[in-house]
Amino acid sequence: MNSVPVLTVKPWRALFDEKFHVVVGNLPPTQEVTLHSLHQSEDTDYWEAFGHYVSDAQGRVTVAKDPSVGGTYEGVEPMGLLWSMRPVPGSRTGLRLRRKKVHTPMVVHISVYSGHMSQGFREQVALASVVTERWYMAPGVRRVNITEGGVTGTLFLPPGPGPFPGVLDMWGGGGGLVEYRAALLASHGFAAMAIIYLFPDHKKNTTIGYPYFENAFRLLQDQPLVATDRIALLGISAAVPVVLSITAYSKTVKPRCCVCISGTHTGRIGATQSIAEAYSRIEKLCKKACRYEKNHIIGRDVFLPIPEDIDLKVEMGRITCPLLLVVGQDDQSNATVESADDMKQMMERAGNSNLLTTLSYPGAGHLIEMPYSPHCKVSSFLMPISRERVLALWGGLTKPHAVAQEDSWEKILGFLREHLCHSVKPHVQSRL
């Protein structure tokens, strides 16, 4: 009687940034098999990844120690079934995998097939399958809608009595309310508030400026479970000049530290300027300076050369709190490498470079997100002011980008703990 293959994934329910362990047993020795992951997004698109393996003398495949010899990833890659995911053949153009409903899990089906397959998975019967869940919200994390003081956002609170260190979380030029990073931060012990600052209604953007961000910061401070004097600002892409501008020039926003991912200090937001005004200028520059490759818009040249005029960039000498920069060296959307170099030089001249930490990753692109998020090199993007839809080239190579996401997230958490938590012990990921 032939033995029945056994597939185990532990933990099958976990936080999004937690590693799982995949093992296949009860196989014949030296059996060729394919491990396959499949996820249907909230937009009903299918994403997959797969690796080719050969069972050992005991008839086992252990993904954490055995190499994939082909597929969407190669080598020993414990999480390759997640970070190498891509849309299945025949999918719509320009897809990007992002979760909107953070109170429900990302469901991933892991299956094992006989032989080394690269297509036709739906037409074959799997030897074994397991359903796994990837969560952004740990048990006990609370989600609170915020609509006060003109601010729209969502506050995520960790379980427990507090007070918790706070993070004001801002995403990029895509606009809208993006919650999943804030939810995961709360799962690690931070009271994190994600806010909208770019609205679909262009007229509303004309009213968004310093007062809006100052109100958001104050709202987070005033939460009963938040430590008033231990709040960080976190921004990615288009939010970076916002974070740097209000940190440098606002009279009321005094963060304990800042984290800036894939951004620039150029195009600073003036004290009386609206987001719509600032971004309209950038979009006009895009129409003049953007390059195109295979119909993909490349934005980094818009920011080059880095201006020498101090009025066109944030005065980095005015930064008085620790600052962490995360840079992808193959960022095609923003001139992050050149911006980071200029920021460092400015801070060295001002005598505050001791506050600066830079993480720079070869082969990483613009969209540096949570660990094990699928690399997105190109996606459809709606320009925030003109509402023109384009295909944006973000850059990056899949494996180096995955390395950057895993390493930077660990160091971002460490940076926030160091400057916000002091004697608080690092939060331990809880198995769900």
Automatic annotation (TrEMBL):
| Residue span, Acyl-CoA thioester hydrolase/bile acid-CoA amino acid N-acetyltransferase domain | 17-148
Superkingdom per UniProt:
Eukaryota
A GO term for molecular function? fatty acyl-CoA hydrolase activity
**Where along the sequence do coiled-coil regions lie?**
none
One GO biological-process annotation of the entry reads: fatty acid metabolic process
- Catalytic site positions: 237, 331, 366
Where does the BAAT/Acyl-CoA thioester hydrolase C-terminal domain start and stop, copy by copy? Answer: 212-420
UniProt lists the family membership as follows: Belongs to the C/M/P thioester hydrolase family.
Matches recorded under PANTHER family: ACYL-COA THIOESTERASE 17-RELATED (PTHR10824:SF36), ACYL-COENZYME A THIOESTERASE-RELATED (PTHR10824)
Query: What name does this protein carry?
Result: Acyl-CoA thioesterase 19
Give the organism's phylogenetic lineage: Eukaryota, Metazoa, Chordata, Craniata, Vertebrata
